[in-house]
Write a sequence for this structure.
């Protein structure tokens, strides 16, 4: 059972968090703050003061607001966590940066590269921390997989498979499937699959082949093959229409890594070597088990707090360049598919 | 435990088999003949009379030959099974057809579409049975999967995943990796993955994206994305360089099918429905378990014998059109990759 160690606890000073949004993900995030010492539940902003107060009561926040600017001024948080529908991110991120406040914004942080470039320029101008909430990157199982990959434990990476597919009921979180909310399956769940490809292959793919289905102007299902030089590839899926195997696999010349059960918030990483004695077999050589508490946001929360406390302007684990790589790729796919957002230029 | 039933046994008259080849696969095939009543081990042809005699003794064949024509004339088999390196298939198949003998030839039966079209024309001219040995098609688990797919048990098929990857030791069956023997990973193992795509999608793909690695003029690794209309796709692998998950998966609009443990000779088919109560869950609704005896060639053997006894000219389960579809696709990929065989025109 992974908890923050005594040593880490001592090192962790208090950081005042302001949460924006009172939905499902904001609630999970707030719950996980409980497991990070020094994470102060300072303030929450909701679409109404009633919703904000309910959330504050439920999760133990000190102050409630229905106006974001007022929260920034009154509560003076060290960092804000933005967890609202996609198309509302830009305005809130820019407002926080303008106020000189550090920002962690849910993925996908920006609707398009145009927005993201403006956010990054603003963060640099203001000298504050900005990060997209790709929480996956901070799970110990993912860190272990990266460590194995970078140490050459599976040799050269040849193939990455990651599929995040769910079967949405007709009434399931409608905004996530709507172009009006700058959403769709690729940017809601497919970006996690993309993040796996980026862990396996650091360069830009040579080309991308895709199939997709659209519903109400946004993609509800897509599958991608990212092609890299030297016979390397990634098979990726982001879907609201099929329930896929939730493990990600990295095949290398010498072995493979499996991240699971759910690769986007994995509790396990396994390293296998190809078996010399049998052309079809593999041997488990190392396992990391991490039956973490609650939802697992604590790893991201602790990382952001460490960055903020050290005055860093971006994360070394999930730098802004990584966000740019992702949004440029989703921009080009959306263009190909004809998925346009109101904020597209 | 699946065995041939009493009823089937009564129906099965004797069929005289002539086996060509004394290697690993021919041996497995001979072993499986034991489990099909009426399958007479009439004759075997080897590259030398010594090898043929050893094989005949080991597997209980009546006659041994080092000359194929002599076997046809002397032993008068009802059907020959050809299990020799790829580049030798054409000459032997044509000789058997010329002699008016029914033919089952190991996959890949022909080096290219040009050869296959000539084989098919010859078989029709002679009025004899011809089939490529895609043994996978005859396993009860595969038949069950086809039945589910065709009955709409998973709704419209959206995605197929099939990877046949093994890690070849440097000294592993060299001819299988050589262009001189009309071989390579795509045609040795990748064709099984292709066969899964063909079970899921009956039409020709709109386009194919691929990555590949070459060794000594033949492909040693490739991954393919077959794109079909309406956002449908197949992710396929054929490799001598990575050991992949050996299960094939068919995702549909309403559920999924898993074929395993090894999808090319599966002992199990499982049908799952997407779970209404949880967007990420599935419920197992039906399983076929088939812990078959020996290597599993008995299903193909029994099918071919039934065809021969009924005077059929081709299999309804694996018709020659299916072989043409496969070889046309591998022809076009080889052309793209620059993998040329001596017999290519």
């Amino acid at each position: 059972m992974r908890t923050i160690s005594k040593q880490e606890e001592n090192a962790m000073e208090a950081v005042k968090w302001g949460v924006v949004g009172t939905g499902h993900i904001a609630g999970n995030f707030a719950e996980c703050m409980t497991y990070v010492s020094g994470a102060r539940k300072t303030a929450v902003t909701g679409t109404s003061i009633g919703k904000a107060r309910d959330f504050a009561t439920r999760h133990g926040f000190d102050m409630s607001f229905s106006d974001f600017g007022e929260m920034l001024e009154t509560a003076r948080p060290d960092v804000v966590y933005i967890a609202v529908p996609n198309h509302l991110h830009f305005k809130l991120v820019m407002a926080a940066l303008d106020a000189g406040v550090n920002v962690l914004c849910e993925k996908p942080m920006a609707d398009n590269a145009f927005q993201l470039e403006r956010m990054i320029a603003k963060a640099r101008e203001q000298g504050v921390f900005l990060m997209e909430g790709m929480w996956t990157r901070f799970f110990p199982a993912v860190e272990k997989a990266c460590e194995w990959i970078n140490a050459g434990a599976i040799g050269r990476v040849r193939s990455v498979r990651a599929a995040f597919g769910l079967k949405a009921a007709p009434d399931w979180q409608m905004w996530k499937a709507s172009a009006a909310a700058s959403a769709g399956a690729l940017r809601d769940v497919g970006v996690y699959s993309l993040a796996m490809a980026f862990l396996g292959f650091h360069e830009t793919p040579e080309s991308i082949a895709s199939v997709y289905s659209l519903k109400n102007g946004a993609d509800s299902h897509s599958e991608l093959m990212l092609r890299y030089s030297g016979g390397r590839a990634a098979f990726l899926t982001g879907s609201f229409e099929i329930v896929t195997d939730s493990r990600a696999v990295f095949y290398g010349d010498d072995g493979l890594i499996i991240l699971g059960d759910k690769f986007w918030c994995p509790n396990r990483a396994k390293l296998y070597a190809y078996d010399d004695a049998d052309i079809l077999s593999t041997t488990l050589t190392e396992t990391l088990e991490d039956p973490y508490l609650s939802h697992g946001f604590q790893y991201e929360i602790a990382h952001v707090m460490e960055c903020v406390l050290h005055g860093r302007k971006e994360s070394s684990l999930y730098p802004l360049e990584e966000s740019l790589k992702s949004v440029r790729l989703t921009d080009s796919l959306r263009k190909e598919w004809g998925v346009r957002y109101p904020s597209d230029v």
